[in-house]
Specification:
Layout: E1 11-13, E2 23-33, E3 40-50, E4 54-56, H1 58-66, H2 75-90, E5 94-104, E6 107-116
Antiparallel strand pairs: 1-4, 2-3, 3-5, 5-6
């Protein structure tokens, strides 16, 4: 039976919760519909996050992203909605979602939305000689 689109984001326990590390995910096939014209909008999503106790499970993320295919949404709204849903599911220390939308009417749109846990401080970068 083929998979179905789903708004449910599954998680799993972070295997290294005592360490800050970055998970980077690229989703090159995001689509939704323009709420004004009904035409498809295409984007590449870049998700960077520092997990706390939970990590997002990738198959559920794929099905979640797929669920937007037939929904009308402004770029700004859908990017922030996805970030909010991911933060709600994983409660990360830090999360950034960048959505690079393809050209529409000669204009490219990039939306960057971030979440930072107020108790988390990023590590100081190490400068090697």
């Amino acid at each position: 039976m083929p998979s179905q689109a789903s708004k449910e984001l599954e998680t799993f326990a972070n295997p290294n919760p005592g360490r800050d590390y970055t998970i980077r995910i690229r989703v090159p096939e995001f689509t939704c519909l323009c709420p004004k014209t009904g035409q498809p909008d295409f984007a590449t999503l870049y998700l960077d996050y520092v997990p706390d106790r939970q990590c997002v499970e990738l198959k559920s993320l794929k099905l979640y992203v797929w669920s937007f295919r037939n929904e009308g949404a402004f770029h700004e709204a859908v990017t922030n909605r996805i970030l909010d849903d991911l933060v709600r599911a994983t409660a990360p220390r830090f999360m950034r979602l960048t959505a690079e939308f393809g050209v529409r009417g000669g204009i490219y749109t990039n939306i960057i939305a971030e979440h930072r846990d107020p108790t988390w401080a990023p590590p100081v970068p190490v400068q090697l000689p």
